């Protein structure tokens, strides 16, 4: 009886350790490459690379929790910024997804298009956090 109890506790501890370590590895080797539109045309230049894991995870969290709509949108102008997640060791068959960002006319929210057919307008709080992480600038200061 005592041997079984000790075995159970030991296995539980090992599972906790394995689970904790594996989730850290998954998030470790990511960055975000941001490009900024040049002029009024659909031309972009490399703007910034975000390698801070906490910031990368915050951006992922905002985008994962967003209420995406399946919609093909046709914007009046090209995106103000675009970005994608970069993996140091990409998985085989993993596709890079392009995110494009437009700053709203009131400069209080951002609209995001994911790939070719997903759209969301973020609330003010998430817009501010996302924009500040991606650009290093405050949305309301533009």
From TrEMBL:
Domain YhfM-like: residue ranges: 26-137
UniProt keyword Signal, yes or no: yes
Signal sequence extent: 1-24
Coiled-coil segments on the chain, per record: none
InterPro entries: YhfM-like_dom (IPR058780)
Matches recorded under PROSITE patterns: PROKAR_LIPOPROTEIN
One Pfam assignment: YhfM
Alphabetic keyword roster: Signal
Keyword RNA-binding: no
Protein name per its UniProtKB record: YhfM-like domain-containing protein
Organism classification: Bacteria, Bacillati, Bacillota, Bacilli, Bacillales
């Amino acid at each position: 009886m005592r041997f079984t109890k000790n075995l159970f506790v030991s296995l539980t501890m090992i599972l906790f350790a394995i689970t904790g370590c594996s989730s850290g590895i998954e998030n470790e080797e990511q960055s975000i490459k941001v490009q900024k539109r040049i002029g009024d045309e659909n031309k972009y230049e490399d703007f910034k690379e975000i390698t801070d894991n906490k910031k990368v995870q915050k951006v992922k969290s905002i985008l994962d929790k967003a209420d995406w709509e399946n919609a093909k949108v046709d914007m009046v102008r090209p995106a103000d910024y675009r970005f994608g997640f970069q993996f140091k060791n990409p998985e085989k068959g993993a596709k890079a997804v392009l995110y494009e960002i437009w700053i709203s006319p009131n400069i209080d929210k951002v609209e995001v298009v994911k790939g070719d057919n997903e759209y969301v307008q973020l609330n003010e709080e998430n817009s501010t956090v996302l924009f500040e992480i991606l650009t290093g600038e405050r949305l309301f200061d533009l």
